Amino acid sequence: MTPLLDARFAMGRVTAVSLGSADAATLTLRPGRGVPGQENGLLTVTAKAVTDGTVSPRLVHRALPGTVLRLGPAQGEFVLADQPQPRILMMVTAGSGITRVMSMPRTPMSRRAPHPGVVLVHSAPRARDGVFRSELHMARRQVDWLDYDEHHSRQHGRLTPEDLGRLWPDWREHETWACGPAAALLDTVEDHRGREGLASVPMWSASGSRRSGHRGSTPTPAAG
Questions:
Q1: Which tens digits make up the pLDDT trace of 59-87?
Q2: Could you tell me the pLDDT band of residue 39, with boundaries at 50, 70 and 90?
Q3: What is the 3-state secondary structure of the chain?
Q4: 138-174 per-position pLDDT tens digit
Q5: What pLDDT score does 163 carry?
């Protein structure tokens, strides 16, 4: 029996592989009968190869069109509540942390106006290391509610509150969704907001583990 026809197991066949950077790839999959609600659609999975990892290097460097993969349900708590949402979504990511955030700006793109203002600041060692870089730059040119900026740590060092202030001067006034390596990103955001005496809000490490963070005051309305 063709694996995709077996409704007992959630399986998907890779139909395309797109390299986002030297160590990241997006796989487009056609789900089988065992994936509820996806019989007529496609799924995309983006993986960033982790040094000494077991699964991610195989997905990035060895998966080819035609490969059949066993799928699991979506997991994690890094989500936006349906209601209410702030008028401005401020997101700060580093490294592979952007893979958990990318669906958030994609969601408004697929819906009718009005859209929330979305601000995304991503830190990567070099421009060529930024996953989704081309997609985000294109989206920024096409819509007026998305602001996307990059910080390149090889040239400018680790992202600091001063860097965020340069890229987005009033970032302290907005709730911040932060996801990335603890030492490179989360410690910076958490320590700074702690010194500011701001209330806590969840943040996530690049591995998906949850930790406490801090958030600012009530978000201001998006411009325009």
A1: 999 999 999 999 887 776 666 666 667 78
A2: low
A3: CCHHHCCCCCEEEEEEEEEEECCEEEEEEEECCCCCCCCCCCEEEEEECCCCCCCHHHHHHCCCCCCEEECCCCCCCCCCCCCCCCCEEEEEEEHHHHHHHCHHHHHHHCCCCCCCEEEEEEEECCHHHCCCHHHHHHHHHHCCCEEEEEEEHHHHCCCCHHHHHHHCCCHHHCCEEEEECHHHHHHHHHHHHHHCCCCCCEEEECCCCEEECCCCCCCCCCCC
A4: 989 988 888 999 999 899 988 887 888 888 888 777 7
A5: 86
